[in-house]
Amino acid sequence: MALGAFVKPQRDRTRNSPAPELTVRLASPRGFCAGVERAIRTVEETLARHGAPVFVRHEIVHNTHVVDRLAAMGAVFVDELSEIPDNDRPVIFSAHGAPRAAHDEAQTRNLVAIDATCPLVLKVHAEVRRHIANGRHIFLVGHANHPEVIGTTGQAPAGAVTLVETVKDAEALAHRDGATAYVTQTTLSVDDAANVVDALKKKFPDIVGPKKEDICYATSNRQAAVKATAPGCGLYVVIGSATSSNSQRLVEVAKSAGAEKTMLIEDHTAFDYGLLEPVSILGVSAGASAPEALVEKFLTALAQRRRLIIEAVNTVEENVVFNTPLQLAS
After folding, report:
1. Within a domain: 301
2. CATH number, domain at 157?
3. Most CB atoms within 10 A, among 9, 49, 74, 322?
4. Does residue 37 carry a catalytic annotation?
5. Of the residues 37, 105, 127, 148, which is catalytic?
6. Does residue 74 sit in the same domain as residue 155?
C-alpha cells in the first residue's frame, strides 16, 4: 500500500501528550463518478440557461448534500411530472433514468425535457428494448423499488420483465418456454450479481446476457478499492446517503472483505467519535454520489482527535467523462 501524506499530529491538551495514533486507509477511486458529475452539471447548466425554477424528477443523485445545494440554487425536486404546474419550465430526468411513460408524458405536455440519465443506465435501457423486439422475456437483477429498476422495467410492456433480487429468487423461477435474457442494475455488488447471474444461467442455459456487464465501471472500481483496503480494519466508514445503493454496497463489501465493523454515515457530523477508542486502523471510502468535500471534512474531524497516518490506496485511475445532454450542448 502506498503511504500518503501525514496529517499534522493533534495533541490532547488535557494530558499535554500526543493524541493516540490512527492509521486511515483511504480508498481510491471513491466519490463522484462520471454519471453523477454529468447529472449535477446538467442541473447547474439548466439553471444558468433558464433560470429558476428548474424541475427535477426524483433526486438528481442519491445524496442529501447535493440535493440540498441544488435546491438552494432553484431546483425543485418532484416525484412525478403531474406535480409540475407550468409547461414552460424545464424538467430534468435524474441520473437513475425514468420509464418510457414519463418521457411520453413530458412530450404530451410539451415540457422542456432534459435527460440526465447516466449513459451506462441508458445502455441497459437499450438492451431491454432490443430484447423485447427480439421476443425475449427479460430477467432484471436488481433491488425492488429502486428508481433505476423502475426506469429499466418501464422500458418494456407490463409483464415482460421479471425482477430477480437473490439467488433464491432465481432458483425458484418456473420454467419458461421461449427465449430469455437478463440485464442488471448498474450499482449492485459485483460478487452478489455474479452469483445471481450464475443461478439464472443454470436455470435457463440459453439465456442471453449483455456483451459487456451492466454493472458500471465506477461501481466495480469503488468496490475493488474497498476490498483492497478493508482487511485488518477495526472499523470501515463509507460516506454517503442511506438512499444510495452503491454506497450501501460498499458497506457490504467492506464487511465481507475483512473489516471488523462497518458503517455508512451521511457526513462527519453523523459519526460517533467514541467508536475510535479501540480502533488502530480505519478504512474510509465514499459512494459515487458523495462529494469529496465530505471526505475532507471527516478527515479534518478525525485529525482533531487522533494523530493520523494516511495510507492512500489507489487501485485504478479513472478518466471517464460523459458529455452534457444534447439539449444543453447547443
Report:
1. yes
2. 3.40.1010.20
3. 322
4. no
5. 148
6. no
